[in-house]
Design goal:
There is one protein chain. With 233 residues, the protein is α/β, with parallel strands linked by helices. It contains nine helices and five strands, in the order αβαβαβαβαβαααα.
Length: 233
Amino acid sequence: MTSQLPLALRWPRRQRFEHFHPGDNAAAVEALRAAAASPAAPWVFVAGSMGSGRTHLLIASCQAAIDAGRTAQYLPLAALRGSRAAAIRGMAGSDLLAIDDIDSVAGESEAEHALFDTFNRYRAEGCTLLFSASGAPGSVGIVLPDLRSRLGSLTQAVLKPLGDAERRDVLREQAGARGIELDDTVLDWLFAHHARDLGTLLDLLDTLDRASLAAKRRVTVPFLRELLRAAPP
């Protein structure tokens, strides 16, 4: 496999291994780093709830594969419209393929068979497949027994979301790097009134950075209220 789609140009720069805060997930990160770097490394099935970092790690794996001189593609099944079986079968030409949210096609016979065939093709060609879902292969509704068995045979990386204290530390660290001070009052209000997964919080921090610079104001609770009230729904 030698051709490569230029998908990396559209991947968010923050979604790299160096920007992932592992907490208790260091073993999962190392397994994915190894799979990205070498076709000899075990394939990985990443399981975790929304906001746990599954997409971040799959995209980071694609970039790490490219950095190692391999080609990579990323397929977000939950975001696709139309025939997802056709989309799966159409993925070719890369040394590594990361397939996100496979639970979104659970019970779709054609899509499950496409995943099964892709699994076998990549294995025969000595390439790398990575998968993610909200839970383990046996718990997300995959109907095809052979597919469920193959997915279950992979290295299982179960992600544990960061706790509130860890997320606060990450936000303070990232805010400090931008010259923004987030005191306890601001963080208390933010965690009570905003989505608490780390990716969403870091996206908000980017918005805060731009808005506070434009307004030449400190980040306070009244400023946060105004900003979020003015944000599009």
